[in-house]
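In pairs, describe these two lines:
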Amino acid sequence: MATAGESVVIETMGPADLAEATAVVNRAFGHRPVPRPLPSDKRLKRERRLDPIHRTMLGRLPGQTLVARKEGRIVGVMRVVEWPRCQVSPRQGLAMLPALIGVVRWDWLRWLICRYVWWRHDPRRPHLHIDPLTVDTELQGRGIGSQLLRRFCELADGTSLPGYLETDTPDNVRLYQRFGFEVTGKATIMGRTDWFMWRPAGGQKPSTNTG
């Protein structure tokens, strides 16, 4: 059960925050999409392999990255991008490969395939896109993701734009639904289900429950 738990400060990521923010995303995705947790040594190796992908995403791709801080430490990361710059096209993905030197082929191949499917499903109309939203593994379920989502809703409503995201976690589907997102489709990508979710402009206010 989620707790009301952790109070955080949300602010824009600065250049000096890139390494710490990337590490948070690496830890959040280091064990996925395997069905059970990896041993710590394998997880750490995978985090290191994913580092160039996430560092490129947060540091070089378009968008605004927000970080949640607790006692000065980054514990959550959310990147927000306005359409039509929110997706990596197949041509852009191939152009990024030199920046991903050191990433094992399986990881960058999975990333390219995933990005292609997301690009195919992306709504071809104005919206704000979350990609990604992550909370450090040891603090998940304590309301930090909800606080980041509330900030996203403020940004979207302030610009009168719908919101859009992808997720591969059923628990996250339920969390996003509390903030007015609805499932509009899904796809199976290399054995994993991804859900595509849309929040209408000025969508419903988030529930008081936290997650």
About this structure: Residues 206-211 have pLDDT under 50 and may be disordered. DSSP finds six helices and seven strands in the chain. The beta strands are 9-12, 64-70, 73-82, 128-135, 163-167, 182-189, 192-199. Residues 9-199 form a domain with the Aminopeptidase fold (CATH 3.40.630.30).
